[in-house]
Amino acid sequence: MQKNNSNFANNQSKKPKSEHVVNNDIPYKKVFVLGPENEKIGVLTKEEAIDKASEYKMDLVLISIENNKPITRIIDYGKFKYDKKKKQKAVKEKQSVTINREIRLTPLIGQHDLETKARKAREFILDGNRVKVSVKFRGRERSRTELGEDILNKFYILVEDIAKVSKEATLVNERFLDMYIEKDKKKVEALNKKNNEPSQEQGE
């Protein structure tokens, strides 16, 4: 009796840490087996269960331990891992967090500086970030908000091939004119396609 208890304790100490343990790596002498369609097969020795899985040309996978009883299932483990990874990737893409970035402009910004800011904005946009483009008014500039609108238009032209306006320019606290832009996937795909097309000279 003591020997059996010792073996049981050793098995418990070997309780798998990874998500799934497969075939001979399962540290239990007897397991409860579920078939490929999740049907109950019953309690078998580990060797019998692995042989059963082999009949299906599949794997025996430890899926859970309930009340100290190991539950296994016969599945195509390679396909199972592939499908799970695919689902996790899809979920991750849906849950991807949009990061907000900010580009600060002034109503009288020079063309060179405007182009430099636009290049930075392009990096943010292509990384999937949402960009707030903000024109800050000082002193008398507050009465010339049309200057800010003009600058925002010039700025947007520099990124229009990859971006779309997600929120039109809005005056905030009479000091900031804020516009939000983000990546336009269709524009980016069209641009990438165009850039990857061989030129006529190369074709000749």
TrEMBL record:
Major localisation: cytoplasm
Keyword set includes Cytoplasm: yes
Statement: the UniProt record of this protein carries the keyword Cell membrane: no
InterPro entries assigned to the protein according to its UniProt record, in alphabetical order: T_IF-3_C_sf, T_IF-3_N_sf, Translation_initiation_fac3_CS, Translation_initiation_fac_3, Translation_initiation_fac_3_C, Translation_initiation_fac_3_N
Biased composition (Polar residues): 1-13
Record's keyword terms, sorted: Cytoplasm, Initiation factor, Protein biosynthesis
Top-level taxon of the source organism: Bacteria
Chain spans, region Disordered: 1-21
Domain (Translation initiation factor 3 N-terminal): residue spans on this chain: 22-90
One Gene Ontology molecular-function label: translation initiation factor activity
Pfam families named in the record: IF3_C, IF3_N
Compartment list: Cytoplasm
Residue ranges occupied by any Translation initiation factor 3 C-terminal domain in the UniProt entry: 100-182
Family the entry assigns: Belongs to the IF-3 family.
Assembly and interaction partners: Monomer.
Function (record text): IF-3 binds to the 30S ribosomal subunit and shifts the equilibrium between 70S ribosomes and their 50S and 30S subunits in favor of the free subunits, thus enhancing the availability of 30S subunits on which protein synthesis initiation begins.
Protein's recorded name: Translation initiation factor IF-3
Species of the source: Metamycoplasma gateae
Gene from which the chain derives: infC
